[in-house]
Amino acid sequence: MANLRDIRDRISSVKSTQQITRAMKMVAAARLRKAQDRMTDARPYTYKIREVVKNLTERSNSDNPLFRTSENPENVLIIVLGSDRGLCGGFNTNLFRIVENKIHDHFSGHMKNGNLSMICFGKKAYDYFRTRKYPVIDHKIGFFDQLKYENVTDVMNGIIAEFKEGTYDEVYLAYNEFKSVIAQNRRFEFILPITYETDKVTVPEFPSIFEKKVKNKEVTDKPESESKKTGLKPDVDYLYEPDPDTILDYILPLYVNVQLWQASLESYAAEQGARMTAMDSATENAGDIISDLQLKYNQARQAAITTEISEIVSGAEALSE
Hints:
By secondary structure, the protein is α/β, with parallel strands linked by helices. It has a single domain (26-275), classed as ATP synthase, F1 complex, gamma subunit (Pyruvate Kinase, Chain: A, domain 1, 3-Layer(aba) Sandwich). It contains 7 helices and 5 strands, in the order H-E-H-H-E-H-E-H-E-E-H-H. The chain has helices at 4-58, 91-106, 108-112, 123-131, 149-165, 224-230, 244-320; strands at residues 76-81, 116-121, 136-140, 170-180, 183-192. Strands 3-2-1-4-5 form a 5-stranded mixed sheet. Belongs to the ATPase gamma chain family. GO terms for molecular function: ATP binding; proton-transporting ATP synthase activity, rotational mechanism. Keywords: ATP synthesis, Cell membrane, CF(1), Hydrogen ion transport, Ion transport, Membrane, Transport. It is found in: Cell membrane; Membrane; Thylakoid. Produces ATP from ADP in the presence of a proton gradient across the membrane. The gamma chain is believed to be important in regulating ATPase activity and the flow of protons through the CF(0) complex.
């Protein structure tokens, strides 16, 4: 059995760790409150701009390059949103495993041919994929410390320009969507080229590269009865100034930027929730360890006292004889 000094040192060490985890939990809880407010405030705008793009697309025959699809996409870009710091449970590893599975299942040929590229947001994402020899062409460390819309547009506008030039045929986005403080949804979404489904406003989670939805240019001729079957609202006449095509040319880059902005807000809030949960669990575990060590300390102390008493009694008996 360990001596009393060793046990006391361990108890002191665990108590120090417990203070750190408790403080980190409180910091994460404070950040989570602000992150949740920003995320929930942005959601209505994000959902509405999706609806606006969908309605405009139905009424337009625009040939905007952001609609450009390829039957055999060669160059693929994957954007991964991780975190800069650890101690947040499975927040990063669970998402990274899903990204790896998607790459192995759908893009293994692209990776072998050198046609797969990755951009990693957060130090953990960059370190994970770089050390595993994935083709990381760019990384953003400290991005979430200064989470601003301007920083998102700087990144996304460059990607949009490269997509228009044909550098990439498809762009995907992987991130953790905030579900609750203790749970996140891992998302792997198809963001470029822009597609939509006639019965949904939201972007599909992950359409297969062989079964992608393409822009339907004949939706405007759909009869009202068919719209009712699909659950769409009846067609409504709008006045456009100057015209739907011009409005689309302006709003589509904004739409893509908003997708990355909302994903960044979701990811940051999910990170704080995961860290708060992990640190709360660590604090409780430290308390359990301290209780066990305290019990061992008391047992060792009792054994030491018993041994001393036995030695004193034995010595007294020896002297009396």
